[in-house]
Amino acid sequence: MSIVTVQLGQCGNQIGFEVFDALYNDSHCPQGLCSKRENEVYQESCKERFFSEEENGVPVARAVLVDMEPKVINQTLSKAAQSGQWKYGQHSCFCQKQGSGNNWAYGYSVHGPRHEEPIMNLIQKEVEKCDCLSGFFIIMSMAGGTGSGLGAFITQNLQDQYSNALKMNQIIWPYGTGEVIVQNYNSILTLSHLYRSSDALLVHENDAVHKICAKLMNIKQISFRDINQVLAHQLGSVFQPTYSMEGSYHYRRNPLGINWQVRPPLSGLPPLGKVSLNRELHFNTSIANLVILRGKDVHSADLGGFKDPELYTSWLAPVNAFSAWKTQRAFRKYEKSAALVSNSQFLLKPLDTIVGKAWNMFASKAYIHQYTKFGIEEEDFLDSFTLLEQVVASYCNV
Amino acid sequence: MTQSVVVQVGQCGNQIGCCFWDLALREHAAVNQKGIYDEAISSFFRNVDTRVVGDGGSISKGKICSLKARAVLIDMEEGVVNEILQGPLRDVFDNKQLITDISGSGNNWAVGHKVFGSLYQEQILEKLRKSAEHCDCLQCFFIIHSMGGGTGSGLGTFLLKVLEDEFPEVYRFVTSVYPSGEDDVITSPYNSILAMKELNEHADCVLPIDNQSLFDIISKIDLMVNSGKLGTTVKPKSLVTSSAEALKKQHQKPFDGMNNIVANLLLNLTSSARFEGSLNMDLNEISMNLVPFPQLHYLVSSLTPLYTLADVNIPTRRLKPSLQFISWNQEGWKTSLCSVPPVGHSHSLLALANNTCVKPTFMELRERFMRLYKKKAHLHHYLQIEGMEESCFAEAVSSVSGLIEEYKQLDATLGTPVEDLPRLSVAV
């Protein structure tokens, strides 16, 4: 059950590194508060999932690194090698000299076709190393040019070439203000294209993670490294092995394979820690919820709150919409930890906001010439808007 | 990693260029302790083995042998370039990358553009192609010139068309020094307006620099230095105040301080493309994010620290309340973070703004132009040049007027409540 990770652009590569680091560190946590045998099985499973074995015993991440300019990849490769504990494959990266200029059209229409073959070959090589492929985990941002545009192109290719494998895209929702001026355009183009080719979109909002760093972790001068590490921690707690149906010692569950597709998916991940359900008058309505419990007392934990029908849409019974995965093996020294992955109206507001802002800008035709220059016409924008308005409406009616 | 080529044209262009290369060398020397020729340096410098005669001397890796600036120096009189070649930077420039003449352009745009343009077109093309060949991946041409004179203004803008035709995919960033109101060149309004038409049509991005503003900044620094208020705000060893040191002594080179500021601007602009950071910004991203409509590509720049330090955080939002953003770009911020600070400082901030505040400057320029043009003063100097006709003037001022009009329209949207356009409604 192996997952091949594709890291795209600066954001994708920076986060990807932190994720593998977190996964490795967790799997090598001493004991993990469970029996030795349990720990070994867990470690084996994690290793098989994310790493392949190199000759001299250093695990190699099952990852393909892609960026259109070399600085970040070079940094990422050296940081991994420095740790001495795990590394990236020497030949697992694809790099060019000049970036995508924050231009989705450039990433999608120029870099995509131009570099399709070498990138897909790299991915193919990783896939061949897997005994059993669970699927693909694609890490990218929405606001830039490479992660977003090239990411959309590659996901489409993966859909064509590996139609039986699951694809989950980890997308980074940009800060509300101040990252990239054309981020709203890039975001709607990315989302609309991913909707047609990805199986699930796992979303992290920069603003939300920033708040976690500021309020929950009390970090004073928050850097992107802090943000990425929080992200990696959250992702790790979702992707590390959990018991499959057979129970303890059996870690064969496919982390990508939950039945998200009740409708076209869009999922969100609230903060880690004790998940307290706010007894508000109005819940975000959920289509599907997954709770992952790790550590002490997992079998006796009370999950009744998650089965409350008020959480779910009227046409789903909680038993069909709620799943719980467990393992006694603790995650990264937390005695107890819980993670919630949710397909709900959680992202309705941010999505609506982005579509609104992009629409306003589109009405003034600002920056459009930068996209038409590379073959993305006004109709493509309109198609994206239409699709996303439908998504917004669908979630509204849940 | 990409490379950029600097093309410095005319006296002003070359003097600023010289300051830039000086600062760039110092910055790289401070960062690159081991003397290895790395990607950062290669963005502006070639590594050459000077023992090899001819062209085969380029070394792509390993220890730094001899650094040559990726630059083309153009001037139609020899004084300035000769001075550079005899000064401390003489080894930095490849003496095959020069184009000079003797007589100068006489502060006449038409001479620079039409006469020298056609005379030197072939040579210019040849030198540019050479410098492009030395680049692994050429991303950008930086053109430095002034608007008020003859060479920088005329030949400098002639170059733009050549670059556009010959290297259409390479960005053209132009640093243009605009004459102040008290410029001693009477025909500077003519030269500036004629040049502006070319900038409108052939530049990707223009960084207009106002001589008067530079002068004011230097005066302020001068005041602070002389009144002994240096202390914590102005750091003695910084690259900016090294010019202040020069001011303290003789005013040997009166424009040195001002040129240093412009050079610092260029250095900061390219820092994220040269060095690593957690949120990189390539030069092509500047154009993508800051130029919403092709014509409106004038970016006003501000830099700190010049004489005070400001707080830098991600993302910077302190300015927001006092700035009025246009309705469709309420959060029009592009942020970039580079880990390498400038020499002598712990951090710095460069802000580029696409702002309608350039409109009054352009209007004033047009005003000065019209005052001369109405009287047909000095026109004969231009019209006697082959290829120049009155229509050239008319077209130029019309181009500037068009630009001003576009800015006016955007300004007009301010203050009027803009309703959000109704969204698409879909059947579910």
- Helix/strand class of chain A: alpha/beta
CATH architecture of the largest domain in chain A: 3-Layer(aba) Sandwich
Indicate the overall shape of chain A: globular
Distance between the termini of chain A: 34 Å
Q: Termini of chain B, distance in Å? A: 48 Å
CATH topology (fold) name of the largest domain in chain A: Rossmann fold
Rg over CA atoms of chain A: 20 Å
CATH superfamily of the largest domain in chain A: Tubulin/FtsZ, GTPase domain
Q: Which consecutive residue ranges of chain A, at least 5 long each, have pLDDT under 50?
A: 259-281
Largest interface: A-B, 47 and 44 residues
Give the number of DSSP strands of chain A. Answer: 12
Strand content of chain B: 5-15%
Protein name (chain A): Tubulin delta chain
Subunit structure (chain A): Found in a complex with TEDC1, TEDC2, TUBE1 and TUBD1.
Organism (chain A): Suricata suricatta (Meerkat)
GO biological process, one term (chain A): microtubule-based process
General description of the model:
The complex is a heterodimer of chains A (398) and B (428). Chain A is α/β, with parallel strands linked by helices and 398 residues long. Chain A has three domains: 243 residues, Rossmann fold; 62 residues, no CATH class; 49 residues, no CATH class. Chain A has twelve helices and twelve strands. In chain A, the strands form three sheets. A seven-stranded parallel β-sheet of chain A has the order 5-4-1-6-7-8-9, with helices on both faces. A three-stranded mixed β-sheet of chain A has the order 11-10-12. A two-stranded antiparallel ribbon of chain A has the order 2-3. In chain A, helix 5 links the parallel strand 6 and strand 7. In chain A, helix 4 packs across helix 5. The radius of gyration of chain A is 20 Å and the shape is globular. About 8% of the residues of chain B have low confidence. Chain B has 428 residues and is an alpha/beta fold. A six-stranded parallel β-sheet of chain B has the order 5-4-1-6-7-8. In chain B, strands 2-3 form a two-stranded antiparallel sheet. Classes of the chains: A alpha/beta (398), B alpha/beta (428). At the A-B interface, helix 3, helix 10 and helix 12 of A face helix 10 of B. Chain A: It comes from Suricata suricatta. Chain A: Pfam families: Tubulin. Chain A: GO terms for molecular function: GTP binding; structural constituent of cytoskeleton. Chain A: This is Tubulin delta chain. Chain A: Found in a complex with TEDC1, TEDC2, TUBE1 and TUBD1.
